[in-house]
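DM from R.C. (forwarded with permission)

"hey, sorry to bug you on a friday — could you get me a structure for this? deadline for the figure draft is monday and I only need the backbone to look sensible"
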Amino acid sequence: MTERTLRSRNQATRRPDPRRPPARRLPAAWQARYRLTPWWGKVIVVWALSRVVTTSLVLMLASVQGPNAWTGASPKYTDFANMWDGNWYNIVAVVGYPSVLPETSTGQIGENAWAFMPGYPVLARLLMELTGLSWAPVAVFVSVAFSLGTALLFYRLMARVQSPATALFAVVLFCAAPLSPMLQFAYAESMYLFFLTLALYLLLERRYWLLFPVIAVMALTRPSGLAFALALGLHVIYRFVTRARDPFAPRERMLAASVTLFSALMGLAWPLAAWAATGDLMAYTDTELAWRAPYIGYQELVPFTAWFQSGVWWLGSPLGIVVVTALILAFALLLFTPAVRRLGVDLRLWLASYALYLLAVFFPQSSTFRLLMPMFPLLGAAAMPRNRAYRVAIVLVCVAGQWGWLLICWGVDGYDWTPP
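My reply, with the result:
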């Protein structure tokens, strides 16, 4: 008899240590009920409990909110959820986009509605017409509904690369994440994440035909067409290189390449629409640059410089440049860690593509946290450890992060320079 067989037999016949407290287990009836609950039922329960926690935190902050540019003191939930960019989406839904761009006293293009894409406000306006309700409750309803849809889709996405238990805990992290209050505010993020999750799922399923309408809506909800086109392009290259072990038929190649080109065109569609409506070729770009002017003044958009400009603005030179360089290297290394590698090639290509897109065009400030939300597939890697203490701790940290983010970025205290 081998040593391994003896060890297994000894473990099987070993009597429990009376000094060790028995492991806590759910009652048998609860365990059976949990096993019989379909995956979507579990996700809905997770989503609902998380919304109770998040809504409670939001209401606590709203109760002490003072008068500000958007609301009076202690506003009701729907008003509090419509601050900041929610007001811009309201303008788009009710008024539309300006044909003449506003200018500052120095002749620069000022902040205006062209920075906000039409997908979310157009859908909200349609529901406003159908129900007769005002903007505030409809906008919150749209965001909340899409947050549930995203949670369900995220489980399906994670279940393709993880075990069902890990996929469900990834949903827990998604619903409890520090920026999850954004999923029930009058912002386009909830709707955008829904279509992004659907697009990633279809990509993993290789249902290229279905990606066309999804990308069209997604790219007109939040800027994403170019980043997704890069991910698709890398996907096509990877499939072509590995076609010996993963067949990539010519017809499938043409279809994948076509949807890649379509995504790139959709990435340019909104800047072209702004040009057509205003007669200014740089209408969209100059509008976006207006939001970074309070930090570094009005400058031309030079790709791959904004992060270093921001680092110098926040930390000075050369420390700011060193920190940004270290962040870039750290993220590159993160993509090759075992946990992230288990997410699969396609999700990692999206993470790399979106990170490259942000590096090329975004100026980091307090909105950086929100702009990082499309990297939510990383939560699948964070969900892998099965240690109970770890899982409880990370959920508590996430909930604490919600309160911290609400205090720093959402609540308004006088002149606030930390927009969400």
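R.C.: lifesaver. Residues 44-52+77-410 form one domain.
me: no worries. DSSP finds 21 helices and no strands in the chain.
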